[in-house]
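User: Please look over both lines:
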Amino acid sequence: MSVSFISRIATPKKALSTAAVAAATVGMALSAAPAHAATATGSAADAKTIAHQMIPDAAQFNAFSRIVEHESGWNIHATNASSGAYGLVQALPASKMSTAGADWKTNPKTQIKWGLDYMNSRYGSPAKAWNFWQANGWY
């Protein structure tokens, strides 16, 4: 066999090998991304922005944010495998959030509205819900 024939065979193999390594690297990087980063609007930051717009009082927003961070990491699809609690605020049963809107499974605004209503009706405010959470590890 001539050297040029071997070069023509080796070069495509090298190119395929390089492409495979690159694809595997991208795949590993994508799979390493935290699950809580994704929401229907694109990111946890988007969900936080929506919450901040809905809860303009800084102290109440911070309390709400702390609860959501602990409960779901701002993942609107967070699901507790043992209890079935779902969403940003881990509603149980999850279907309770339907009272805030039919899109409760995918819309952070709907989940935030339900969670805020829940915290206000059960505890009086997100800050009081956070105080309870700190004392009990749940709310």
Remarks:
- Residues 3-31 form the longest helix (29 residues).
- Helices lie at 3-31, 44-54, 58-72, 108-123, 126-136.
- The radius of gyration is 23 Å.
- Confidence is low (pLDDT under 50) at residues 2-40.
